[in-house]
C-alpha cells in the first residue's frame, strides 16, 4: 500500500458488547473472530479463503486463547483519523482474553487490510501473558511500539501484516482460492 500507516492502537477502554446483528448474519466465521457487522463479516469469511496471512492471524488468535470482537464505526470515537484501533481494554474470562477492534470502513481490500493490522496488534497483546489490564497493555505497546501521540502506538509488525494482506487480496483475483 502506498499510503502511510493507517491503523493505530489507542489507549482507550471501550466496553466489549455483543450486538444482535451478528446472530442473524449468514456469514460463518471461526468462533474467535466475532464481527458485529454482517457486511464486514461476510467479507472476512471471504478473505479467509484468499489471504494466507489473514488466515494465520485468525488461527493465531485462537491458539493464544483470544476472542476478538470487530465493530464498525464510521468515526471511531477514540481517534479521529485512524482507520482502525485496538482497544487497550481486555476482558478476562477464565483463560480467555476478549479484545475489541473498531474499524472505520466495512468494505474493500483496504478495510480488510486494516482488520488484519488490528488483528496483528491483538496478537501482540495476546502474546504477552501479563497484558490483562489497561495499564499492562499500555506498557506493552510502549515497549514494543513507537508512540505517535500520547497513548497512541504503532508497531512495524502490524504494518507488515496489513501490507501483506492487501497484497494477497490483490493477487488472489489472479489465481484460484486457497484451500
Ligand atoms: Zn497499528
Concise summary:
The chain is α/β, with parallel strands linked by helices and 179 residues long.
Instruction: Give the N-terminus to C-terminus distance in angstroms.
Output: 26 Å
Strand content: 15-25%
- The best one-word shape is globular
Number of domains: 1
Main structural class = alpha/beta
Q: What is the H-and-E element order? A: EEHHEEEEHHEEH
**Integer-rounded radius of gyration:** 15 Å
Total DSSP helices: 5
Structure ligands: zinc ion
Q: How would a textbook summarize the main sheet?
A: 5 strands, mixed
Count of DSSP strands: 8
Write a concise keyword list for the protein shown above:
single chain; 179 residues; alpha/beta; 3-stranded antiparallel sheet; 8 strands; 38% helix; globular; disordered N terminus; binds zinc ion
Amino acid at each position: 500500500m502506498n499510503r502511510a500507516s493507517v491503523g493505530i492502537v489507542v489507549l482507550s477502554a471501550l466496553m466489549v458488547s455483543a450486538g444482535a446483528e451478528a446472530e442473524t448474519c449468514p456469514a460463518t466465521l471461526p468462533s474467535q473472530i466475532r464481527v458485529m457487522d454482517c457486511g464486514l463479516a461476510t467479507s472476512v469469511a471471504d478473505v479467509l479463503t484468499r489471504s494466507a496471512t489473514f488466515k494465520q492471524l485468525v488461527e493465531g488468535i485462537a491458539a493464544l486463547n483470544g476472542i476478538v470482537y470487530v465493530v464498525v464505526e464510521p468515526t471511531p470515537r477514540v481517534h479521529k483519523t485512524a482507520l482502525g484501533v485496538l482497544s487497550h481494554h481486555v476482558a478476562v474470562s477464565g483463560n480467555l482474553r476478549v479484545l475489541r477492534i473498531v474499524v472505520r470502513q466495512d468494505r474493500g481490500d483496504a478495510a480488510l487490510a486494516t482488520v488484519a493490522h488490528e488483528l496483528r496488534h491483538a496478537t501482540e497483546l495476546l502474546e504477552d501473558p501479563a497484558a490483562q489490564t489497561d495499564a499492562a497493555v499500555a506498557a506493552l505497546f510502549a515497549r514494543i511500539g513507537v508512540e505517535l501521540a500520547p497513548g497512541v502506538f504503532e508497531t512495524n509488525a502490524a504494518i507488515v501484516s496489513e501490507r501483506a494482506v492487501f497484497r494477497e487480496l490483490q493477487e488472489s483475483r489472479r489465481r484460484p482460492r486457497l484451500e
